[in-house]
């Protein structure tokens, strides 16, 4: 058993307000499929490592950042298990290939209760979970690289009635696709039922190109996984400060309280600190944390510029972020570093350039040609004139050069 996997599971459980079981058990889940050659998967079906938690997340109402609501989804359990292999479907050759590189690798599964009602809520909850995992170091949680995957269980029902038959949309690998897959599946089930059809208990996949879910395999004939206690693994025993034996080798045990004391600030706490320290709006703190590396970038710019944080946030969220989204980049890969943006904002704050000129300079910086903001300002002659006499001379020269127009403008 991998010690680091157990520590990561405990840390994640604590961050999600779970009760950590000091004694958890391992089971064998038998099934015969090409992605696990052993014919069974080691999991925690009876007593998982953590139970009964909660995850709070926030989302906007009607796409208005100023109207945010906070919701909570219950965490049923967190369990340790083995990952399976990856099936690759080659439609051209009509073949199914299997990549077994990750088969048997430690996997942590977070099981949520059915407390969300649309794709947007699920996406917001998973994004918050992703931030928590990255903050803890439990996982890099990059969905595109398979470090975090989502299986979405969807069912529809009338208010007050039992849940309907559910379908499972497997292995969703992006938060955007998660929202689309759930919303599509909700509408598909509603349409099916309203047209007199029935919902099959089946596994489906989301086709991102077509924007719809497609059947994979049905679950109508309930599979008997023949769960049994894993004979090769004893119970997993954890300790806290009170139960830790006096003469125990600390390298041989995992202390829940020791892990609890070393939990880093979670995203919710970081947001509160950003609002308190910099006087920014709460909704801005969400954007800063939700975009990878943006909060660190913002704080770096603030430290290097004389501009007030409230104005800095405007430039980052309204201008720089639009460039990043336009080119599908994170701030870590931006050609405009925090140093360059701070230099630009200092020129603006000192009234060396206008805000219009600053936007022109930002556009030039984005080209990544290695020029500084000051060099661009001088090359393109974007400086604001500070000398009143010089300004008067320029105005007089313009007037002198346009005699006919001046005469036409003079009354009488």
Automatic annotation (TrEMBL):
Domain Asn/Gln amidotransferase positions: 296-410
Entry keyword Chloroplast: no
GO molecular function per UniProt: ATP binding; glutaminyl-tRNA synthase (glutamine-hydrolyzing) activity; transferase activity
GO biological process, one term: mitochondrial translation
Name of the molecule in the record: GATB amidotransferase
Record's catalysed reaction(s): L-glutamyl-tRNA(Gln) + L-glutamine + ATP + H2O = L-glutaminyl-tRNA(Gln) + L-glutamate + ADP + phosphate + H(+)
Lineage start: Eukaryota, Metazoa, Chordata, Craniata, Vertebrata
Family: Belongs to the GatB/GatE family. GatB subfamily.
GO cellular component: glutamyl-tRNA(Gln) amidotransferase complex; mitochondrion
Keywords of this entry: ATP-binding, Ligase, Nucleotide-binding, Protein biosynthesis, Transferase
Matches recorded under SMART domains: GatB_Yqey
